Structure formats: C-alpha cells, structure tokens
Amino acid sequence: MENHFCYRLKKIDTTQQQLLWGETVFHNANGYIGVRGNFEEGYPHSLTSIRGQYINAFYDITDMKQAEALCGLIEEKQTMLNVADTQSVRIELGEESFSLFEGTVKAAKRWVDMKAGVTGRRVDWISPKGREFTFTFRRMTSFVRLPLFLQEITVASHNYEGPVRFLSGHKGEVRNFCDPSDPRVAGESPQYLFAKDKKQTGERTFIEAKTSRSGLRVVSGVGHRIPEGYHTQIRWQEREAQHVITGRISPGEEACLYKYSWFSDSVRTPAPEEAAEEGLRCVMEVPVKKLYEEQEQYLSGFWEDGLLEMEGDDDLNLAVHYNMYALLSSAGRDCYGNMAAKGLSGEGYEGHFFWDTEMYALPCFLMIQPQIARTLLSFRYETLEKARENAKKLGHQKGALYPWRTINGEECSGYFPSGTAAYHISGDVAYAVAAYYLATGDREFLNEKGAEMLMETARLWLDTGNFAGGKFQIQDVTGPDEYTCMVNNNYYTNALAKYNLEWAVKCAALLQEAGRWDALCEKICLTREEVERFGRAAACMYLPYDEALDINPQDDSFLQKKKWDFANTPKENYPLLLHYHPLALYRRQVCKQADTVLAHFILEDYQKLSTIRNSFLYYEGVTTHDSSLSTCVFCIMAAKLGMVEKAAEYFGESAKLDLFNTHKNTKDGIHTANMAGNYMAITYGFGGLRIKESGLYLSPCIPAKWKSYRFRFFWQKTQIEVTVDQKECSVRRLKGGPATVHLYGEEVLLMDCVRTRVKKEGDGNQDHEI
After folding, report:
1. Sign of dihedral through CA atoms 763, 722, 671, 597?
2. Which of 271, 586, 680, 723 has its CA 20 to 30 A from that of 558?
3. 344: closest CA among 670, 746, 691?
4. End-to-end CA distance of the chain
C-alpha cells in the first residue's frame, strides 16, 4: 500500500497548461501557509506562472463596483493575498544557469510523498556546454511548526568542476494573479501589499509588508544552512533581498542548501516582527532531520486514525489518499481562518470560505480529526456578530445570516441572486453544529458556542419566512444549485431551516438541563416564546412534494419550466455558466449540482424511500455536474439506493478530478469540497454511515470491481474500523468503550467485532441476518 501514498510524475511536461496544473497539484500547505509548486528557478518570460505563497485568512479589501447603487449591495470585498516570494532560488554553474528550458533534460520527475509530508523534484540535466548534473529539490510546510516552509536543494556534479552560486530570493512586495476572462478568479491585480520595513540579523533577512486597506501586516523571514566551505553575501534592493551563496564543486561531489522561510501576521499576533525573528532563530537551531521526523510522525497519526483504503483499484486508492492529504493541508488550525474553496493551493475564488466547509469538509473531519472540525466551527462563532450585522443589512430585525463567501465574516458576493440569496448557508452552519455534537458529544462546545449559533440562525428563519395556507414557507431564496436562483420554497433550504429550528428547540432543553439557559437568554435577549415559535415553524415547514411523480420538486416553480436541451448542447459549452446568460439557465430545468438530492442525503428521514429514489432518478436527468460538489453526492445517494455500480462510476469521476484535471481548472487551485466528498463517498456512501440522534448507522455495500475496502472513524470516544469485501462486512472496535451500532437496520452492541453478509447491488435497504 506504500505506493498509494506517493503520487509520482515520471516525466515533467513543460507545456503551459501542464506547468500550471503542476503548480497546484504539487503545492505545499499546512492549514496556515500554502506555497504553490513553482519551480525555484522560474520559467522563461514567455510562459505564465501563478507564483504564490498564502496565509489562511490574510487578506486585503478591494472595491466591487455595482452597475446600480441599490440599497445593501456589496461594494467591497476581501481577497486572499500572495504574501511574499521566498521560494525562488536560481542556480549558477560558472557562466551557465540551470533551467529545464535550456540544455538537455535526460530525466525529470516530481512527487508528493503523503507519509513524509514533502514534495520533490529530481532532474538529470546536461547544460548547453555539456556539463552534467543532478538536481534534487525537496519542500515541506510543517504540520508541527505551522509558520515554517523548508526547502532542500542538492546539486550533484558528474563532470563539472568550478564555481556554484545559489541566488536565493526574498521578495516582500508581490502581486496576485488575475484573469479577467474567468469569473472564478480575480479579474484585476492591483498592488495590495506594500513592503514597509526590512531588517537583517546576521545572515537572516526579514521584510514587513502592510496591506493597502485592511491594515494587516505580514512579516516573512528567510535564513539558510549552507554547504560546508561556502559563504554568503546579502544584497538589498529597496525591499527585496538576495542571498548570494557561493562555493565550488567537483565531479562526484554534492552541495546541499537548506532554505528556511518563516511567516508571522498581525491577524494572529500584535507583534509579527518579533514572532518572525524568534521563530526563525529557534527553528534554525533544530536539526533538519528532526523537522522531517516531526512531519512524518504527525502524518503517521493522521493516516492511522484516518485509515481508508481500497483493494482492486490502485489509481482510485492513490487519488483518495491525495485528496485526504490535500484536505488536511487546507483546513485552518485556528479560529481566525477556515477552509477556502481552493485551500491554500491557488487563488481561485480569491481565497473565500463558502458553505463547502460545513457540508463537505466538516463531515470528513468529524470522523477522523474531531479537533479540526471544532476549530472550523469556531471560526463561524467568532464571526457570528458579523452574521448578525449581515442579517440587519438585508432587513432582518433578528437573527444571523452567514455570508455566502467571505474571509473575515463579511459578505463578498457581488451577485446576490446566486450569492447572498443562498440563505441555506445559515442552515448549513446550524446543521454542522448539530452534526458535531452528535458525533462527539461535546457539551462544552454546545454550551459555549454552538447554542448561540443555533438560536441566532433559527431566528433568521422566523423573520425570513411566513405562514401561508397553514404552512411555513420561505420565499425568494437560492438553494445549492446555482443554475436556479431566487425561488420560493427551495426544498433544500426549507429542509435545513426545519432542522435548524428543531435543533434550536432541542438545544434549549439541553441548556436548561445543564443550567446554562438563563445565561444565554440574557446574553442574546432570547425568550421562551421565541423558542415555542421555533417549534411551530418547524412542525409546519412546507416541503415541496409532487404526488404524481412522487418526488420533491427543487422549488415551487421548477417542474413548470421547460427542460434544458441537453441533446443539442455542444460538449465544449460546458460548464454552462461560461457560455449562457444566467437568465437562460434560470428559466430551464437544469441543475449545476446536487440540490434536492443533497437534502435527501443529509436529512433522509424527512422522506420515504420511494420519494428519495424517484427524486434521484429525476434530477440525474437534469444535472450537469458543472460544480465539483456534485458527483460525490450522487455517488452517496446511488449507493444508498442500491445502485452500487452507478455509485462507483460517480465516485471515479469525483476522485480523479484534480489529479486528472477533469474540469480543466485545477490551475486555479484544488477542489477541496470535492476532495472531502470523496471521503464521504466511501464512508457515507459505500459504507452507509449515518450519525443521527438515535445513534450510529452502517449499511455497507461494495462495487464489483473492488476486492475490499476498509476505513476507520471516531464515534463519540470510540474508534471503529469497518472492513468490507465481496462476501462479508466486519465492524471492529479499536479504542474506547463498547458502542451501539445499527448495522443494516439491526441494533447490535459492538464489544469487539461483528460480522455479517455484505449488501449487494440492488439489495437497497433490505434487512440482513447478523
């Protein structure tokens, strides 16, 4: 299985699109900093590079001009910044310089080692003058020492004797990438970051830069451990430093350079200058071997607790491990940051946080890294006051409306029909709070943070919806499907609102039981009458249903629209949003992604099985999956409905999205929600895992192509391993106390191990003998 934890390219393709794809796929990140996989030596000027290094939640503010100055429209936004360029290292060999674009490349490969936590590049190169070398590059962003980015560069000479110079750059004033032709990335690239101060301590350099409008400061520090016999000279040019490291090399010799980059920012500390100086000094005193060992030890624990493997499809196995590793690299490690749609791998969606975190990433971390799940939710608590302010801007007297896209908690969506109108984001946050509590039993979090979020999001629904015809209805909102906007009674939104309101009532009872109710009521001016209204609205929530089709319509008008002409839509016109006006999409039955189908996954007990099945089949025919958030959900639901081979097809499409660049936009960054969806596809899909108030549920199935699969997860404080092959399913308790499990619908007490016959294609939810 070791080869399933190392993704390798045996040849480096230097065409434009492949270079940009490689910058993303071979990025390094740890939840705090992210560094794109750019070549240290750079590219020729004729080629584009998205050269970037990022800090989670470090941003500036830029104007967002509206065509008409209507009340409440967003006029400015946050954008994640490229904070420095410390990865550049040019290598001069006498009068020649190393470049993949000159001389002869005998062999070149790249890799990401997911157990060691490093990326690498090795090049066997002959210079234009016939000098032969091997260059090895190794890079690491530490999971243990979050501000550290470490580079190891080794030059091995085969037939050259002479001088070697490493020209190591430290640039503190950089710009972001822009592409005016693509709405998924920034369309402009003004100067957001300005270098304000520089400092040199011995042979370490520090540059402080400040944003133009947000007032945030970042300090980058650079130091080196140089080869024996080499010497360093530091050249300053305004706010840019160049470390010139010079020595000699002979045939059969190697020269190894270690470059340390350390980052600190004013989001997290009032004195980033001092933090950077002290941090860099301390880390350079630690043996490099120990830094690598720390990384490997950290990841050993991650893979041990998050074990997930398949036997029978090596490519899928590798892709799933890559996705899990990239997901871990993307998730924020403190309450100041979160998880951007592209992680810390690129500038797509400008580093904004979406609902992806709560509905895709959090269900993954709940199972294998509950503390990370808690931290991600804590960000929503820290930005709760801004969610209240956002609700007031939209005319609500009470409640919290979380922003559709954000970095600091304020709305960044300039197109409100598919952004701000997506009120389900507040229901998503509430759902995540309840899911975290059910999975962990963490009453402290619920009492201190979760309850307040549940109450404030519940208040929003009372002020947004109204009773009509004896039902509580919610008008003019947008669900997950971005090809259908501003509708009445979106099924997903109403279902989430119902669940939110129900949990607010349940939480009130839990707080009273814990003696915490009065304190919360006093803090947010909450009354018992309000909670009673929560209960009435939940009980009367309108959930659209079409009796003739036995499906849940996506909204009140969806079935009245003409279906999109899929047969006559050219393949090159996908994704549709790049080729058709929004109104052309809104007026047709066409879905960008799972909407009602997603609601049936997370809230399956709200409908009978026939309705879920018929809805799945209906929406399968009108969904383009132009969003990366879609196929993993269809995989999960196909597995639930006994369509195991169809689920396997959806899973394969989803798992390979970034490694195979199937959406042709991996250059802008990884698709973190889809990566989390891969984990869910196996555990919640093929594993049939569900966490409900009534307990833990498992209903495993297996595709015919796979020999077996297994995964581990935490349920409360018990760690469980599920193993499934073509004949048998076993559920084993690894740590913690005994647990009650509903296996294929039958309640069993898991003391050690339980085995049963595995569910096959077409079995659906039929009972099994245990």
Report:
1. positive
2. 680
3. 670
4. 31
Going from the C-alpha of 407 to that of each of 40, 272, 341, 351, 721, the distances in angstroms are 29, 20, 11, 7, 36
pLDDT band at 68 (very low <50, low <70, confident <90, very high): confident
Which letter, b or e, does each residue of 6-33 get, where b requires 16 or more Cβ atoms within 10 Å of its Cβ? bbebeebebeeeebbbbbbbbbbbbbbb
d(CA 175, CA 666): 20
Q: pTM of the entire structure?
A: 0.96
Which amino acid makes up residue 742? Answer: H
Nearest to 660 by CA among 107, 42, 24, 119: 24
Average pLDDT over residues 13-18: 96
- On the question of pLDDT at 669 being above 90, the answer is yes
Q: Average of pLDDT values for 665-670?
A: 94
Tell me the catalytic residues: 482
φ/ψ of 193, rounded to 5, equals -115, 130
% of the chain exceeding 90 in pLDDT: 93
Taking the alpha carbons of 755, 757, 759, 761 in that order, is the dihedral positive or negative?
positive
Q: Cα 36 from chain centroid?
A: 15
Neighbour count for residue 738 (Cβ, 10 Å): 11
Q: Which two tokens stand for residue 393?
A: 């801007």
752: number of Cβ within 10 Å: 8
For residue 87, the SS3 value is: coil
Mean pLDDT (the chain) is 96
